[in-house]
């Protein structure tokens, strides 16, 4: 019997409101890694009442089964559900929690249909934890990071790549046609035009991040004709429709993910776990007492458990694995000597 099941006997049954809130968290977790702020909010919600804790126990049971859904089942069912699944994720997740974990496979695929349809319909996409390199018709090289999706739209006027989700590394090649066409990466917030360039573009929830390693990149917001920024080698920036971040450094080591490694330089522990969480299923978070610890090092992305063990061996932290899909990083317990 699991530890969660043992604890359940001492907890009151969750009410409908608590199950609904747990369903909201379940949908958010599976939509992508939680930010440090969201991780703290989830922990605060769980600690608010015993009914919340019991509702989360049911959510944990659901998370624990997600990795067992056969990929072929997803490929068969998701296209059929994509058209009408949008907006129903919360209701379907709630139905799963009320009905129990046995309802996971079909209900979960329905809940995820709208999000996964974007990957199914994209020209090129990567699965969770997958990194893939592509050669475009003009010789441009693109590397897709984990859970990334692009469309390639070349015509007589433009070489355009639409980033639907995730992150890409671009190494542009000179155009091969007599009339040279600009190379653009388009996101929900705007366009990044390459000027003989090696750069990355990442689609965040409400912003676009661009980092330049060679050449220059002109940034335009959606609907605007003129660039609002020109990035040079070693510069990075995030922007949205009405906001841009200060310039930040772009280090070549930041692209180590293309070789299966994550390079951290004095990175907050909670931010490191968000990045590692992009390559695994489930919930990965830090307790408040260690969230601000600074971490430097190289961490393998093909084996997140090994990366966590490396953290525990080099930092004053311990890894608590409640299930394979629910992992927390806590401070080391004080010695009783």
Automatic annotation (TrEMBL):
Please report the stretch or stretches of sequence annotated as the FecR N-terminal domain: 21-61
Record's protein name: Fec operon regulator FecR
Q: Which Pfam families match?
A: DUF4880, FecR
Source organism superkingdom: Bacteria
Membrane in keyword set = yes
Q: For this UniProt record, give its keywords in alphabetical order, as a comma-separated list.
A: Membrane, Transmembrane, Transmembrane helix
Instruction: Fetch the Gene3D superfamilies from UniProt.
Output: 2.60.120.1440
């Amino acid at each position: 019997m699991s530890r969660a099941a043992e604890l359940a006997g001492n907890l009151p049954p969750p009410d409908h409101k608590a199950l609904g809130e747990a369903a909201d968290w379940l949908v958010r977790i599976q939509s992508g890694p939680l930010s440090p702020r969201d991780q703290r909010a989830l922990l605060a919600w769980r600690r608010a009442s015993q009914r919340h804790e019991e509702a989360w126990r049911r959510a944990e049971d659901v998370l624990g089964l997600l990795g067992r859904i056969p990929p072929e089942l997803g490929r068969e069912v998701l296209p059929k559900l994509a058209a009408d699944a949008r907006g129903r994720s919360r209701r379907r997740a709630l139905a799963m929690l009320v009905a129990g974990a046995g309802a996971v496979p079909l209900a979960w695929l329905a809940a995820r249909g709208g999000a996964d349809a974007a990957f199914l319909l994209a020209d090129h996409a990567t699965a969770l934890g997958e990194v893939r390199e592509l050669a475009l018709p003009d010789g441009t090289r693109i590397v897709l990071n984990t859970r990334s999706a692009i469309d390639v739209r070349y015509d007589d006027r433009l070489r355009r790549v639409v980033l639907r989700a995730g992150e890409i590394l671009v190494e542009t090649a000179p155009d091969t046609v007599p009339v040279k066409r600009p190379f653009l990466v388009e996101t929900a917030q705007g366009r990044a035009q390459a000027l003989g360039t090696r750069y990355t573009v990442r689609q965040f929830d409400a912003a676009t991040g661009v980092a330049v390693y060679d050449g220059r990149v002109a940034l335009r917001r959606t609907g605007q004709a003129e660039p609002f920024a020109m990035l040079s080698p070693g510069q990075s920036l995030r922007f949205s429709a009405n906001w841009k971040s200060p310039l930040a450094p772009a280090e070549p080591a930041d692209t180590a993910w293309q070789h299966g490694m994550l390079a951290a330089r004095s990175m907050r522990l909670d931010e490191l776990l968000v990045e590692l969480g992009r390559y695994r299923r489930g919930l990965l978070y830090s307790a408040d007492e260690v969230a601000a610890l600074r971490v430097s090092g190289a961490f393998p992305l093909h084996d997140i458990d090994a990366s966590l063990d490396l953290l525990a061996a080099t930092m004053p932290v311990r890894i608590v694995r409640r299930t394979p899909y629910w992992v927390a990083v806590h401070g080391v317990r004080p010695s009783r000597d």
